[in-house]
Design goal:
Blueprint lengths: L2 H8 L2 H36 L7 H35 L3 E7 L10 E7 L5 E8 L4 E8 L10 H12 L2
Antiparallel strand pairs: 1-2, 2-3, 3-4
């Protein structure tokens, strides 16, 4: 290796200018990186400090605690919803009503048969027979959309209506 040739090359003015330009470019690049590093550190410190003064770790633990509470609450609401659904199936919710004239000499369809059932087809048929001088009301239990007591045509019609209603 010929050191004299290298020294002679390095003493040329264009090499000196080139080296000065390279050093200036590296200095600018170093300054830009220092500014970027400072901005990153400011953002990092903001991230690590919770708005209430706690750390990011505290914030994460608090968030996990809240999520755990929400899961427990959601599970409790799900259980409660299942209980309500089972109660709803037993509630009287299907209705069928038939109005009719019980006697040929009395009009206005004042007599009626009302069937009220739950989701399982259990309930009651209530009949009201209107005459000129009195009104009689009868109630017949229904189990699985059938009665152990004989039903009139109007009561059967009301039971069909109730079974088909929603």
């Amino acid at each position: 290796m010929n050191w004299e040739a290298i020294v002679e090359w390095a003493q040329q003015p264009q090499v000196t200018v080139g080296l000065l330009v390279a050093v200036a470019a590296l200095a600018v690049w170093n300054l830009v990186q220092a500014l970027r590093w400072g901005a990153f550190m400011r953002r990092w410190k903001q991230l690590m400090q919770h708005s209430e003064g706690g750390s990011l770790e505290h914030t994460l633990y608090e968030t996990l605690r809240r999520v755990s509470l929400m899961e427990e609450t959601l599970k409790a609401h799900g259980n409660h919803l299942e209980q309500l659904q089972s109660q709803t199936n037993r509630c009287l919710q299907r209705v069928g009503l038939v109005r009719y004239d019980a006697f040929p000499d009395i009009g206005g369809q004042q007599s009626f048969a009302l069937a009220v059932l739950n989701e399982h087809g259990d309930g009651v048929v209530i009949s009201g027979i209107h005459s000129r001088h009195e009104m009689r009301v009868y109630a017949k239990p229904i189990k699985s959309r059938a009665s152990s007591i004989g039903l009139s045509d109007e009561e059967q019609h009301a039971l069909r209506e109730a079974s088909l209603s929603k």
